[in-house]
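queue> holo job accepted (4'-deoxy-4'-aminopyridoxal-5'-phosphate)
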Amino acid sequence: MSRFLNGYYEQLKPYVPGEIPKESGLLKLNTNESPYPPSPGVLECFNRDAASLQRLYGDPANRELNRVLAGHYGLSADEVMATGGSDETLELAFMAYSQDGVAFADETYGFYGVFADLHHLDVKLIPLAEDFSIHPEDYYDLGREIILANPNAPTGLYLKREAIEEILRHNRDHVVVVDEAYVDFGNESMIPLIHQYENLLVIQTFSKSRSLAGARIGFAAGNSELIRDLERLRNSRNPYDISRQSQLAGVKAVEESSYYRRNCEKIIAAREWTVRELNQLGFHGPDSHTNFIFVSHEHLTGQEVYEGLRARGILVRHFDRERIKNYNRISIGTMEDMERLVAAMKEIVTNG
Ligand code: PMP
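queue> job finished
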């Protein structure tokens, strides 16, 4: 830290992203990206003449992307707002509605705590149950903004619509943000509820099911007043948040949704197969509704499994936090990736 840094930021503990390895040939199962390439139309956008695309600013209102997203989800264009990755959308939502503080689970997406620190917010952590499940009643009448990852990360557990509706009804005077980064892996989105609950804001990303983590696209869906709030903040910060190429790619990705739906089905099938195989090897974890699994072993520590996989060229995510240190979060890849993972796990369990 230099002596010039604003003291306001002295205590900040920045988010630690999953490792981006330099070695080639490593199987990367640590940041929940899709193992499948973007769809053909999207790839074409990236191959277009860079000179003409990059010289000019993009549309700061992301109008075309918002329009196709609205069409896809049955909303009007003023009920969606695309941003540069959903991390940006989340931060805007933290900034906009946290005047009475924020509440989120004690084990959830790590960036929530970082945003809360960055903006000096009062945080109420809601402990997950022993089995990592979320009890909706713990979120009733909290008198503050609520952030819920649904499905949750890194546990992969999912709250059904009725439970989310109860939380919305019990917090009518505060915004409830539902972060649906992993919703496309077999779950129901809350987006259709935005007309029913004026306090509901849903956030999604193109980084997981839509194979575009590198393009940085996320979006919020909510009633037009909430969206106007977020736009106010976005335009006070970074109006050109999505590059022109990413804007075009995002539009194509929505238009080619059936390609991504098929990939999600393949990922779900690979997940179910992997869970069955790993159970037989003594690994267990919560029931995943996402493109990752969160598993611990009967006899091996989380660190031993992490290192065993790393030594065999497979990178997964291990967290040091006391409650979850015996677990590893493993992204689901292709069937071939998962066969390689299971073979490595067999060796680790047999040889240590
Ligand atoms: N929410 C959750 C729950 C996540 O796991 C992630 C990705 N790590 C994000 C949001 C952010 O995704 P992105 O910024 O790539 O859209």
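queue> The first strand starts at residue 27 and ends at 28.
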